[in-house]
Design goal:
The protein contains 11 helices and 8 strands. The chain is an alpha/beta fold and 293 residues long. The chain has a single domain, classed as TIM Barrel, CATH 3.20.20. The protein has an 8-stranded parallel barrel, surrounded by 5 helices. Helix 5 runs parallel beside helix 6 and helix 9 runs antiparallel to helix 10.
Length: 293
């Protein structure tokens, strides 16, 4: 399955779900249920992340393999190349190629958080654009990459970040999944600036449902996502009703956000599931009831 072809077809919006590999046997049981629940929504594809510094490379491979062979789900494999040498990257990519994977989502990734014990390979590729170029020259994968509507937290400037995205696309990325955001205007402005910069590939909005107050605040601080005063007030009010009320608030907020995005003609929605199913099932079913998906 070549994901870029899905976005080029121009039919119904493409729906995709992202997971990370379960950490242990106990998490594996819950993960199975989550995937089964979300599979009932008939997504166009699922994607599986790849841990910092290759820390989950075996777990990622096994999760991708299970998604394809046991769950019968079209699947995209991530690769995060930070710290990996060309030979290590080749080993990972060869395994995915043998598995029949046709689409790889390429990110730089971050340094593993292990108190400075991680040592990068001396020949590692520090930028996603270099990884994309390397993969494109040596393989026939369809390649996706990440974009940042509010700018990458480590970028020198917003304009420079768009330049970096242009390089990734010029080097072979055929579609972009945008980091999540809670203000759609940020996404529209980002797409407009990308188009003016000569980036013509599909740009897909990433959707991060609100799963809990603390998680939302922590992830926003980590990723640089803006939480408006209005959203913070809504979260505060919802939290007074407990976890269930916060989850429902998150579902309602995401439905409204996705509804507007779909009405504006986005080519798809990419949901960050955080290995949970209840919220995404609720959101997608609401949108289906409105014939938006």
């Amino acid at each position: 399955m070549r994901v870029s072809k899905l976005y080029e077809n121009g039919g119904k919006p493409v729906v995709s779900f992202e997971f990370f590999p379960p950490r242990d046997a106990e998490a594996e049981k819950e993960f199975e249920k989550v995937v089964d629940d979300l599979a009932t929504l008939n997504p166009d594809y699922m994607s599986v992340t790849f841990g910092a510094g290759g820390s989950t490379r075996d777990g990622s491979f096994q999760t991708v393999k299970k998604s394809i062979e046991e769950k019968n789900q079209p699947t995209v494999a991530y690769i995060a190349g930070y710290g990996l040498g060309p030979d290590e990257m080749t080993t990972v990519l060869d395994r995915y190629q043998e598995l029949g994977i046709e689409t790889i989502f390429v990110i730089r990734g971050d340094e593993p958080r292990n108190n400075g014990q991680f040592v990068s390979h001396p020949d590692c590729m520090y930028y996603a654009s270099d990884m994309i170029s390397f993969i494109n020259e040596n393989y026939d994968f369809d390649l996706g990459c990440a974009g940042y509507p509010e700018g990458h937290v480590q970028a020198e400037s917003f304009e420079k970040d768009i330049e970096y995205l242009k390089t990734k696309v010029d080097n072979g990325a055929k579609y972009v999944v945008a980091q999540y955001f809670y203000d759609n205007n940020l996404f529209y402005e980002y797409v407009d600036k990308c188009r003016k910069a000569g980036i013509s590939v599909p740009i897909i909005p990433g959707i991060m449902p609100i799963y809990g107050v603390k998680m939302t605040e922590n992830l926003a601080a980590l990723c640089g996502a803006t939480l408006s005063d209005e959203l913070r007030r809504g979260l505060k009010e919802a939290s007074e009703g407990g976890k269930a009320a916060v989850m429902q608030f998150g579902i309602d907020f995401a439905v409204e956000q996705c509804r507007e995005l779909l009405e504006k003609g986005v080519p798809g929605l990419h949901f960050y599931t955080m290995d949970r199913s209840q919220s995404v099932v609720g959101i997608v079913n609401y949108l289906k009831q409105e014939n938006l998906l």
